[in-house]
């Protein structure tokens, strides 16, 4: 299992306890892990198709979605991270910050504070910045933003049109767009989401 936990330098590292949460014993390489996670995510996407009209801006949905995306692979899926990471708020602040973000998003929608695209992208950025889970935060935030934009009547995002889990120019563009949003410049992330 030497390379199963290998990740890009800008990815969220798993600590030893989190690594122990791997449920599938057949996973021995990073390719196996990617395949298992993608199969689980595909099942979660099917679940989201049945939730298109349901209220999604709740903590319950946020955590249920993560569990459905990664619960067949990781024992901690759908659970708040317990450790500090290279990104994200202090673990004790996750629920406070998440509750605030979800209230903000509901306010933005009710008052048409931003375009539908920008509301969904701001939700995505906020989720990534909070980083509620040990891993899978970016994929989770993109799927939740996709659910929201669909509910708001917008077209689905393409998120660069490729996979972001590997090192490359697409991932670098995504990370740069997130960093710009950290500085309140959402234009690059909006452009990336629609590229």
Distinctive features:
8 helices, mainly alpha, 195 residues, Fic-like fold
Q: Quick recap of the structure?
A:
The chain is mainly alpha-helical. The protein is built from eight helices and no strands.
Question: What's the CATH C level?
Answer: Mainly Alpha
Percentage of helical residues? Answer: 40-55%
CATH topology: Fic-like fold
Helix-strand pattern? HHHHHHHH
Name the overall outline. Answer: globular
The appropriate CATH architecture is: Orthogonal Bundle
Structural class: mainly alpha
Domains (count): 1
Low-confidence stretches: none
How big is the Rg? 16 Å
Q: Look at the structure and give the mean pLDDT.
A: 92
The CATH homologous superfamily is named Fido-like domain
Cα end-to-end separation: 36 Å
Number of helices: 8
- Biggest sheet layout: none
Strand content: under 5%
Query: How many DSSP-defined strands?
Result: 0
